[in-house]
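Predicting holo structure, D-xylitol-5-phosphate bound.
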Amino acid sequence: MTIISPSLLACNFLDLREVCNMLNESEADWYHLDVMDGRFVPNISFGLPVIEKIRTATDKPCDVHLMIVEPGKYAADFKSAGADHLIVHYEACPHLHRNIQQIKDLGMKAGVAINPHTPVQLLDDILQSIDIVCLMSVNPGFGGQEFIPHSLSKIQALRKRIDQLNLPTIIEVDGGINLDNAGVVVQSGAHALIAGTTIFNAADPKKVIHQLKHS
Ligand code: DX5
Ligand code: ZN
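Done. Tokens:
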């Protein structure tokens, strides 16, 4: 069954406790938490204190997506704040292997996110070491953008490679996921869907989570 990871970037932060209660009751598998630094991406979101609070409101795994430069400086802090998965950007990490080792040594699952222009083939020499690939289907930095269609062939190629190598690596697809494209994204090989706007702008977010899960 497809893993669903709602991106809280699109929720109403004034209602954070109710949002967590709703997600806990829903079929959502993970919480996707987008951290932006205004340097790696042209936007600033939220950081450690907010994640610390969210951690106290759920037992579901927190999938923390770091859109920041020098993520290694903060990996231990995100572990303390409650991250279960720590995802760093390929484009932000000249010493990616070291970053991955650090995340694993801290006891978290390690993920690598790639921007729309980054070929999946560049992951070939790190794929065996990572738990999650976050394949960006929009340019990171903002919620509510349109899914980039070329992402589908990237998902297919990556899934083929992961299956060839018989790896347990999870492919999560992040950005522009909606009820119209979720099916084809899963058919292309995604294991996990991240969705913000589609879930939190809906009149019935739990129903949308259910629909995404069964797409
Ligand atoms: C984009 C973030 C995404 C985003 C997804 O920089 O990484 O997780 O919040 O939001 P939607 O589903 O609205 O594209
Ligand atoms: Zn994200």
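Residues 7, 32, 34, 65, 174, 194 surround zinc ion (ligand 2) (CB under 6 Å).
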